[in-house]
């Protein structure tokens, strides 16, 4: 008797879950699920098997008929290496400064997502935008590329103070983005933020970070492009990619399928925030 009740409960749970996902699944369940009360002659073992089959069949129906994630293609992605300042930018855009201070952050393995109107010091009207802040860990990079169809614009956040040590890694990320067929479905623009310019080391004093970063990344992207074309570079075999169309012999930012801009920025002091707000406001 207890077993029969458990089986009935299992069937009911499966039915309620499937119907909540897609009401049309009810037709499938009603035609496939056994009636526990009217099957007194059926062995408990057979009922267990049938319950499992119905549950499994429900999962198949769910994934075949609506389980695939649907992308809106309207999000602004915040990407980059660890400790570059992506999450600081996310909270600065959402919350502004709290009592004159930027909200503290730490390296995280989670994704931050929210839809909000960018905070404006002048309180001007801003339309709500969906932002997704992806972790910078390389081993979580597949999570980013699995969701690129949801992206209409991407902000690459760079630590300008340590850029020289990360230039190759950042260039690899940018090249992967620019050659992704998934990103090209809805992607329009790319903004490279040279963050932490308020803390530039003495040996870089007086240098305009965005010009330095732009030139170095252009060179690194070209080097990687040539290596991959000759079969020497590493690529993600699971990703569908296209070749960059180069007007001359070497890659230039004008060859990018996305419009690319560079901005000097400081999440801490707010330098460059007006340029970021303007860039976001120009998105279609």
Automatic annotation (TrEMBL):
Question: What broad class describes the main subcellular location of this protein?
Answer: endoplasmic reticulum
Sorted UniProt keywords:
Endoplasmic reticulum, GTP-binding, Membrane, Nucleotide-binding, Receptor, Signal, Transmembrane, Transmembrane helix
**Source organism, top-level taxon:** Eukaryota
Subcellular localization, per the record?
Endoplasmic reticulum membrane
Task: Give the matching InterPro entries.
Answer: P-loop_NTPase, SRP_receptor_beta_su
Record field: transmembrane:
45-64
Signal sequence annotation: 1-21
Q: Name one GO molecular function term.
A: GTP binding
Q: Does the keyword RNA-binding apply?
A: no
Membrane topology category: Single-pass membrane protein
What is any one of the record's Gene Ontology cellular component terms? endoplasmic reticulum membrane
Say which family it is in. Belongs to the SRP receptor beta subunit family.
Instruction: Report what the protein is called.
Output: Signal recognition particle receptor subunit beta
